[in-house]
Amino acid sequence: MPSLSPALPFSFAGNAEDAQRLKRLIQQAMQLLAIAPLHQPSLLNLACGRADETGVLLESFAWPESGGWYLGLDLRPREIAEATKRWGRSWEPQGRIEFRVADASLAHQLPEEKFDIIFLRHQNFWDAPLIWDQIFRHALERLAPKGFLAFTSYFDREHELALAALESLGAQRCLSMRHANSRPLADAPGKSVDRWLALWQHPQT
Ligand SMILES: C[S@@+](CC[C@H](N)C(=O)[O-])C[C@H]1O[C@@H](n2cnc3c(N)ncnc32)[C@H](O)[C@@H]1O
Fold first, then answer.
1. Sheet order of strands, 42-46 included
2. Distance CA 22, CA 25 (A)
3. Residue 53 contacts residue 73 (beta carbons within 8 Å)
4. Residue 6 in 3-state DSSP?
5. For the chain, percent of residues with pLDDT exceeding 70
6. Does ligand 1 have an atom closer than 6 angstroms to the CB of 104?
7. For residue 153, which of 4, 135, 161, 191 sits 20 to 30 Å off, Cα-Cα?
8. Closest Cα to atom 13, ligand 1: which residue?
9. What whole-number distance in Å separates Cα of residue 24 and Cα of residue 178?
10. Helix runs in the chain, H state only
11. 59 near 23, Cβ under 8 Å?
12. HSE (CB half, 13 Å, CA atoms) of 41?
């Protein structure tokens, strides 16, 4: 797929490069697992914030020009408004993108059916384990047969906790890989952008 163009520039210097590094990481994982892009996929991006990764998710998981359906959810209205301005029309006319202010722990109540790809960038498990346990649980319930749940993590320990949570929910781990070129962040030791990527499938897949 040709690069999807955001209608607004990214808010912070470095976001575009981070997104391109994430794209290479995802494509490496897809190659390792022999995952091909999908025709008209449905993608759910949970706790998506500004969803700077929207373009690279679509470019990675959807066949060029196939279109599809992408839904991003976050609790923060400001981030959702910004994501909508940046990406809302960028997949038209083939594909549809929508962002909603919504609680990801209630994903089981979504009117939509199952999703082929469910993505969580910089999951925040250790901040609120009970809520994130619900987010992961309901995400798995919303995963289409043969679909993938993918998340990235900022920290080693946070990643380990999220891996353990998914394992205890019975999910099938396909891959967990350290990002060799993740950009270190100065606000906390051991924190870097998309430091880890993990991919999961439904237990019954
Ligand atoms: C660490 S930030 C990651 C944001 C974005 N995915 C990124 O990588 O820039 C965590 C995000 O989770 C969102 N969040 C936390 N709990 C949530 C919930 N129950 N439902 C939806 N979003 C939630 C926050 O509003 C915040 O945007």
1. 95-101, 68-74, 42-46, 115-120, 143-153, 196-201, 172-178
2. 5
3. no
4. coil
5. 98
6. yes
7. 4
8. 47
9. 13
10. 15-32, 54-61, 77-87, 129-141, 156-168
11. yes
12. 27
What are the tokens at 93?
């006319």
Query: Residue 23 Cα, ligand 1 centroid: separation in angstroms?
Result: 20
- Number of the ligand 1 atom closest to the C-alpha atom of 52: 9
User: CB 6: neighbour CB atoms within 10 A?
Assistant: 18
Instruction: For residue 147, give the nearest of 201, 72, 199 by alpha carbon.
Output: 201
pTM of the entire predicted model:
0.96
Mean pLDDT of 154-168: 98
Whole-angstrom distance, CA of residue 128 vs CA of residue 104 = 13
Q: What share of the chain is helix, strand, coil (3-state, %, to 5)?
A: 35, 25, 40
Atom number in ligand 1 closest to CA 135: 19
Q: Which of 48, 50, 74, 76 to mutate to test the pocket of ligand 1 (most atoms within 8 A of CB)?
A: 74
Query: Which segment of 10-24, 33-47, 161-175 scores lowest on mean pLDDT?
Result: 10-24
What per-residue confidence (pLDDT) applies to 2?
A: 61
Taking alpha carbons only, the member of 83, 78, 26 closest to residue 52 is 83
Domain ranges of the chain: 69-108
Q: Which residue has the higher pLDDT, 5 or 20?
A: 20
For the Cβ of 74 lying below 6 angstroms from any atom of ligand 1, the answer is yes
The protein residue with its alpha carbon nearest to ligand 1, atom 24, reads 47
